[in-house]
Design brief:
The structure holds 3 protein chains of 3 kinds. Chain A folds into 2 domains: 15-80; 84-170, no CATH class. By secondary structure, chain A is an all-alpha fold. Chain A contains 7 helices and no strands. Chain C is α/β, with parallel strands linked by helices. The longest helix of chain C is centred in the C-terminal third of the chain and has 22 residues, at 294-315. Chain C has 2 domains: 26-117 and 246-325, D-Maltodextrin-Binding Protein, domain 2; 120-241, Periplasmic binding protein-like II (D-Maltodextrin-Binding Protein, domain 2, 3-Layer(aba) Sandwich), CATH 3.40.190.10. Chain C is globular. Classes of the chains: A mainly alpha, B mainly alpha, C alpha/beta. At the A-B interface, helix 1, helix 2, helix 4, helix 5 and helix 6 of A face helix 3, helix 5, helix 9, strand 2 and helix 10 of B. Chain C: Residues 1-21 form the signal peptide.
Amino acid sequence: MSSQSPMIKTRKPGERIFCFLLVLGSVYLFWQAYNISGFSSLSSPGAFPLAASAAMILASCVTFLNTLKVPAAKDVRFVYHCFPPVIATIMALILIYSVVLESLGFILTSFAFLFISIQFLYRRSPLITLAITLFALIVVYIIFRLVFQVVLPEGIVPEREILSSIKSLWR
Amino acid sequence: MDAFNYFAMSWLSPELLGLTALGTFLGIYVGAIPGLSVTMAVSILISFTFSWDVNYALCLMVGVYMGGVYGGSRTAILLNIPGAPSAIATALDGYPLAKKGLAGEAIGLSTIMSVVGGFVGIIVLAIAAPTVSEFAITFQPRDYMMLGVLGIMLVGSLSGSSLARGIFAGALGLLIGTVGLDPMTAEERFTFGVVELWDGINPVAVMIGMFGISEALHQLHHMNKAVVKQKISRIIPKWSDIKKYMPLSLQTSFIGVIVGALPGTGGDIAALMAYDHAKRVTKNPKVPFGEGAKEGLIAPESANNAAVGGAYIPMLTLGIPGDAVTAVFIGALFIHGLNPGPLLLIEQPHMFWFTVGNLTLANIFVLIFGLTGIRLFSKIVECPKGILIPLIFLLSIVGAYAINNAITDIWWMLAFGVFGYFMRLYGFPVGPVILGVILSSLTDENWRRAILSERGSVGDLFINLFHSPLSTVLFSVIVLILFTQSPIWTKWLKRKLFR
Amino acid sequence: MKKTTIALLAALSLSSSLTFADYPTKDIQGIIQWGAGGSTDTVMRSIAPHVEKELGGDIILTNKTGGVGAIATKYVNAKAADGYTLLMGAENPQMYKILGLSDIDYSDMIAINVLARGTPIIVANNDAPFNTMQELIEYTKAHPGEVKFGSTGPGGLTSIVTAMLDSQVKLDYTSIPYNGDGPALTALQGGAIDVMPAVLGATIEQIKAGRMKAISIVDVEANKLLPNLAPITDALPGMKSYLPWGPFFGVFVKKGTPDEAVEKLQAAFQKAAFNKDFVDLMQKRGFTIMNISGEEADYFLEAYRSTSSWLVHDAGFSKFSPEEFGIRKP
């Protein structure tokens, strides 16, 4: 993987907590797996999930114990090196985008998302951003909606009516 | 002589030739866009070509299939978003190459080796289809299970520096793969009472999240870093390179044909197994695997294209689909009034050589279209990040939605994207997660079938294993890899010795 | 200019939602319950072009899989009842209630057309030591637990046919579940399972090619496609009470869809299902064309639901009793 340091000699801020959360998560999943069919038989639906979650617990414990031994990296701050504001902002934007996607429809939300995020990251004149946004949106719409007939969420835009009125103009 | 006429049919008719070319061209782009799958494209073409002559329809669809399998590598190399699960292994070494400014060379090499793989698949289909298909259907549940185990052992080679983290990621993937209504008993597993989870979490959603979203989030760290200038002087790889990698390409192509011909496995598993094979047989790669080893690019690309010919083997001879796409082809043949099944070749003898000729033609078009436009594509990597990253997000979200027209898939994709971001941040490899998701149901279901067949006795399962030569061979391979070559073992040994 | 366009579009969308006299005014979305390449998918994709011709509008077909079709059913019922979203499905929803999969089945929707019905057949691996139903029963009794039956999960065709068998004769066999009849029939040819009930259409080509053998047709009389195969009622006359029974394909819309739209759809599907190409395809695959709608369809659907629900309930793998939903005993 690209971001992987060759040998983990130091730990990043938050790494210990992350690994600990993984241990907790694994234990929870093991409990869930146990609830499927208990330890009833090797061919039960729960057998494989139990084995997988057991492996997760083991591996995450080993990882967590290792982080206890490793010293913290110097001059690395969580909010700067691990989770800078720009990433938090973009994550928030994507979250809002996907929440409102279904109710407002693909065209409006994607337009807003692209415009805001390109403006935020690229920082050029809004006109350039607008041009890029429109171009990208039209290409995506043509490929997905018109060619591959993926009916994207329509929301408040009466897309099918618009399309059929355009089609009737054609005829 | 008849055979030759049928073979040449699609070459000589301008319409058929044109449709094959068009199909291949479209296929490359379908394959390259994550979320748009070849299965989906071929389904749409069924409705679209409904009133056409069957040969015309088939030419278009065969082109899309051949082009689509190849096309998945494009986005894998350029953006680290595999266009389809069969291109996951391609991203592992292809993307690092692009980051070094070698995107053009990587695409060129992957094109040549895809075409080599494609031809191997077609040749095996042409000369050994009946033998291979009879062999393929003798695979018993226990054999599929062992194939799954073989695949899972690959976690070792995808783990990078920390094996424990790799195992965690792999096991997590296996667990994700079990979510949903158990297909064997309809028992709910990890569904928490949510109907939307009954069908499980789509591997493609996991893949787009883990690779695409998490990588794009990571790129936000380096917003001010200048983009890598792509060297586009060399696109067609050196002849000496082709010669050097040819043996590996041929070996992995054969893995691809066989895995592709098995009714229970497809190009995705073939590519991963080929990657593992490459890693095991390449003793001293120039560049380590995972950092842009050409071997790691060639192996999966040869294998997944060879799997196309492989998937046709059981379809044409027995009417059994070799993968999801050939299943749709069977539906298409049926709609066009043919009877796909074991009698197809008796009732429609031209079908076989027509398909072989058409596949060959489509493969040639992959070569032509694959080697054009590389310069333009490489520019994508040079596109300012401020524009590229929002576009990747948009494409990922639309792609995730397109899988099954479900908002839920977007949620999963995003959740795995954010989780994948933190996994990468803290040194967890994300490759094994996808590996686990892909192999989960294969291993789980066949393990249980194998046990059920022996009425619950593990002992009987183990003893009966040695009654079948095939199972014995598979079992020996597993044991051999585990004890001699597996990175799991060697790494553990190394750690024991050097600590 | 822009304003007038918007106003025009708004008026257009308003008018189309108010009057259904000129239905359809926009693309219709057809939601297929099963994945690409499956038999439901194939049937729907082969009838859709004929329907489009009758309706004079496009139908966009979308596969929406999951939860044995429950996700597609739920999706269609969450959409507006305007006739622009069709559910194209198979028999599965009729078991949802008693299996606890969903609280919507076809009785909560309007049937546009029940297109065709399949006939179950029992097939066996070529090397299996029995050739007829009687021999199968005797062999299984003599070798308890040795015969491997393929199955496709609870509520599927195989589970209902085996439930019918169990109600007639107690057999001790090993059940090996598969993910659909395609993989199971492949496993049958490879010898991983010995016997399996399946739909005739999925097996006919293999039987003709001699790759598997037909044991018995699960019907009251022999089938045209396999005239020499004895019906199961020869060996088990008690089965008569359940038969004829078989999986079906149908098209449905949400309850509350305006009558004009329903009538137009019914008329279009009915004409399309008479199309010679479609009829030929279905017969070649061993499906019996039904092409029924309205009361006739409701009666058929109800009969299917009551037979299957009680069979499954009596076999002991239902979550709820059919009585809770007012499903009468056959």
